[in-house]
Amino acid sequence: MAFKALFMAHAPDADPERDHCILETEKYKLYVTLVKGQGQALEVCRKLVKEEGIEAIMLCPGFTHKDIAEILEVVGPNVAITVARGDGPSSKISMEAMKKAGWF
């Protein structure tokens, strides 16, 4: 049985019904989904935990502490939640790249 995890990130033009994929080996099944906002994030988490048995959720830096708390309420205490956070210089580099791509 494989370890099942979800990586979720924000994108301003995301549609989780379209913008998702699964990468897997015998031991690891990684679901990747892009969402536009918190409402979509909550729905994706609720659905994948219930239907696919997701055991861990990894979030992009755009998720706030409040967002994480809401996700925890939806998935319950038996699902691990982590957030990818960069240092100051890395965050600045990412922000500039996102501006160039038209995110803001």
Structure characterization notes:
- The protein has 104 residues and is of the alpha/beta class.
- The chain has one domain (3-100): Rossmann fold (3-Layer(aba) Sandwich), CATH 3.40.50.
- 38% of the residues lie in helices and 28% in strands.
- The protein is built from three helices and five strands.
- It has helices spanning 38-52, 65-75, 88-100, and strands spanning 3-10, 20-24, 28-35, 56-59, 80-83.
- A five-stranded mixed β-sheet has the order 2-3-1-4-5, with helices on one face.
- Helix 2 (65-75) links the parallel strand 4 (56-59) and strand 5 (80-83).
- The protein is globular.
- 16% of the residues are buried.
- The mean pLDDT is 96.
- Pfam families: DUF6506.
- InterPro entries: DUF6506 (IPR045441).
What are the key terms here?
5 strands; Rossmann fold; 5-stranded mixed beta sheet; 3 helices; alpha/beta; DUF6506; 104 residues; globular; single chain
Short summary:
It holds the Pfam family DUF6506. By secondary structure, the protein is of the alpha/beta class. It is built from three helices and five strands.
